[in-house]
UniProtKB/TrEMBL annotation, chain B:
Organism listed in the record: Pseudarthrobacter niigatensis
Biased composition (Low complexity): 1-14
GO terms assigned for molecular function: transmembrane transporter activity
Species classification: Bacteria, Bacillati, Actinomycetota, Actinomycetes, Micrococcales
Protein name per Swiss-Prot or TrEMBL: Polar amino acid transport system permease protein
A UniProt-annotated Pfam family: BPD_transp_1
Length: 274, 342
């Protein structure tokens, strides 16, 4: 594979979430969540459906606005700016700039169907404003796009449209697209949930490879085997709160909370416990 | 109770696999093939299935078509000679050019204004939303004919039109309404505003049909708002917009004929003037009709290719163009004339 994407000195990509709350109408889906992910760390968030995992992930790049608490990346507030003793909401342009540091991969890929795989990957680097970086030329973005497609094993499908690719291939293109801006942080929102079981591993292998690259990864998933292999930190969420977090060893083999224990007793297959 | 008990008892008995009760092994294809050799049909001639009723139907319809064509050709009252004489006459062609001009200008302006109205309608500002809604409401509720006459007679309502600072007496520029609103201006104004009201709804529908995830993905990638609309949303919305938009434009081509109330010499008004002089009413209406058919046909061809362009990525493989289809038809049918009949 080609060179790694980030400088080996992983001094960037620190995510600090402090007391984040979020409601949709009368339902409070995040009830004061705090979580720190170290630069270059791999946090895997697990938990039952409706526990607020995806919402938490989406607050990190400000796709969801928080109702309370705050999130910082390398010490800088997401979506707000401190002026005096007030937090001013950032204008969309500034938010878009911040987002270029944060790549996101969606459950149902959200590839642009009218653009080829390569065009999907090469679109953002040409048009997005990245603080401290010049925008790339079209040729440069295409060259880089091909490199990234090569990295996810799809260089020969560069000119295919998403609909001509399998689900696993589409998700790999989506990962390449998220990498195109050299983000400090990558968010994965159930990246394998929409895939046929036989296609799950090709996507997980790509994420596994990224986990060693120094980029901070935050992954929401139901793939417990993957969580155990790759995570530094496993976070168990339920009903809008973090119930328990720790190393995979702690969480899977020796969960402290009864809620965690009962969840894993349902989702972990017997073969996995040996 | 007792029967349930016996079932339980039976099922508890350790049963060695009873060979007699297992269903017969699913037959593998080789079994039959080995038993009896399949006869070789390769030298037989294939006779296509007969469809007698299809032939009857075809004959009846062909007869009907022939009868219509015959009457068109032989009934002298169609006066094809007169049609041919006027079809390319200078005055008719001038009228045609005016019709095309009106269609193009009000079509383009109408869709541009419609796009702005659609964006207003989708905005977060309640005032913009309600202004856009009211615009569509008014212009869709009044007959085009009335709008046309209203614009032409604007000079009666407002004698002068001026540009200045509102609510003061400061005027930078002032002009008589009747000099500003010519027949052409009234026609363009009427058609454009009416068209904008309809196209706003069509464009809004198209934009709404694009999956929300597309916008999220674009936002997550930091793609700027304008680029997001033009590169991501609109190309996908076009698929929903185009069929109805072409309907509208074809409607507009014929809608321009309403401008005759302003005595504006587009195609329809021109032929009216001519037949009032020559009394050859039907042949001249036929001249106008044939030109409208020509314009619509050309537009339909454009529609086909533009829609095909925007279906990129929405279908796995692009549909063949009629030309490619014809080529394929002749290629396959010429190569294997008898064996494949379907």
């Amino acid at each position: 594979m080609t060179e790694t994407l980030t400088a080996p000195t992983a001094t960037r990509g620190l995510v600090e979430i402090t007391g984040v709350r979020k409601s949709f109408g009368p339902t409070e889906v995040l009830k004061g969540v705090s979580l720190t992910v170290e630069p270059g760390g791999v946090a895997v968030i697990v938990g039952p459906s409706g526990s607020g995992k995806s919402t938490l992930l989406r607050t990190i790049n400000h796709l969801e606005k928080v109702d309370g608490g705050h999130i910082t990346i390398d010490g800088r507030l997401v979506g707000y700016e401190v002026r005096g003793d007030r937090l001013h909401e950032l204008r969309e342009k500034e938010i878009l700039k911040q987002r270029t540091d944060i790549g996101m991969v969606f459950q149902n890929f959200n590839l642009f169907p009218h653009l080829t795989a390569l065009e999907n990957v090469a679109e953002a680097p040409v048009v997005a404003h990245q603080p401290g970086k010049a925008r790339r030329s079209k040729a440069e973005a295409r060259r880089r796009g091909l490199e990234l497609l090569d990295r996810v094993g799809l260089k020969d499908r560069a000119d295919a449209y998403p609909r001509q690719l399998s689900g696993g291939q589409q998700q790999r293109v989506a990962i390449a697209r998220a990498l195109a801006l050299d983000p400090k942080i990558l968010l994965f929102d159930e990246p394998t949930s929409a895939l046929d079981p036989e296609l799950v591993n090709e996507v997980l292998d790509v994420i596994r490879e990224l986990a060693t690259s120094g980029t901070t990864l935050i992954v929401v998933t139901h793939e417990m085997g993957f969580a155990r292999d790759v995570a530094d930190t496993v976070v168990f969420m339920d009903q809008g709160q973090i119930v328990e977090q720790g190393t995979p060893q702690d969480i899977f083999s020796n969960p402290q909370e009864p809620r965690t224990r009962s969840f894993f007793s349902k989702v972990l297959e017997p073969a996995f416990n040996i | 109770m007792s029967s349930a008990a016996t079932t339980v008892a039976q099922s508890q008995q350790p049963q060695p696999a009873p060979p007699a009760e297992t269903p017969p092994k699913t037959r593998r294809p080789e079994d039959g093939a080995a038993a009896r050799k399949a006869p070789d049909y390769s030298s037989y001639r294939v006779v296509a299935a007969k469809h007698p009723w299809r032939w009857v139907g075809t004959a009846v319809v062909a007869l009907g078509v022939l009868a219509v064509a015959w009457s068109l050709a032989t009934n002298p009252r169609w006066e094809w000679g007169v049609v041919a004489q006027w079809f390319t006459a200078q005055s008719v062609v001038n009228g045609l050019v005016e019709t095309l001009k009106l269609t193009a200008i009000s079509g383009i302006l109408g869709f541009v204004l419609g796009f702005i109205l659609a964006l207003m309608r989708l905005s977060a500002s309640p005032l913009l939303v309600s202004v856009s809604w009211t615009f569509s409401w008014i212009f869709r509720s009044t007959p085009l004919l009335v709008q046309m006459l209203l614009w032409y007679n604007l000079g009666y309502l407002y004698e002068k039109i001026s540009l200045g600072i509102p609510f003061t007496d400061v005027r930078f520029f002032e002009v008589q309404t009747t000099t500003l609103i010519s027949q052409f201006a009234a026609a363009v104004l009427g058609l454009t505003l009416n068209q904008a009201a309809y196209s706003a709804e069509i464009i809004r529908g198209g934009i709404l049909s694009v999956d929300q995830g597309q916008l999220e993905a674009a936002a997550a990638l930091g793609i700027p708002a304008w680029r997001r609309s033009t590169r991501i949303v609109l190309p996908q919305a076009m698929r929903a917009i185009l069929p109805t938009a072409f309907n509208e434009i074809i409607g507009l081509v014929k809608g321009t004929s309403i401008v005759y109330v302003l005595a504006y010499s587009e195609l329809f008004y021109t032929v009216q003037v001519i037949y009032n002089r020559t009394q050859q009413v039907l042949p001249l209406l036929l001249v106008a009709t044939l030109w409208y058919i020509v314009i619509t046909s050309v537009l339909s061809v454009f529609q086909y290719y533009i829609e095909r362009h925007y279906s990129k990525g929405a279908v796995r493989n692009l549909p063949l163009t009629p030309l490619q289809k014809a080529r394929k038809f002749f290629a396959t049918h010429a190569a294997v004339p008898t064996r494949r009949n379907f």
